[in-house]
Amino acid sequence: MLINENLVQDIVQEVVAKMQIAEAPGGKHGVFTDMNDAIAAAKASQAVIRRMSLDQREQIISNIRRKTHENAEIIARMGVNETGMGNVGHKILKHKLVADKTPGTEDLKTTAWSGDRGLTLIEMGPFGVIGAITPCTNPSETVICNSIGMIAAGNTVVFNPHPQAIRTSIFALNMINEASLEAGGPDNVACTVEKPTLETSGIMMKHKDIPLLVATGGPGVVTAVLSSGKRGIGAGAGNPPAVVDETADIRKAAEDIVNGCTFDNNLPCIAEKEIVAVESIADELMHYMISEQGCYLISKEEQDRLTATVLTPKGLNRKCVGRDAKTLLGMIGITVPDNIRCIVFEGEKEHPLIAEELMMPILGVVRARDIDDAIEKAVWLEHGNRHSAHIHSKNIDNITKYAREIDTAILVKNAPSYAALGFGGEGYCTFTIASRTGEGLTSTKSFTKSRRCVMSDSLCIR
Question: Is the pTM of this model over 0.85?
Answer without folding.
Answer: yes
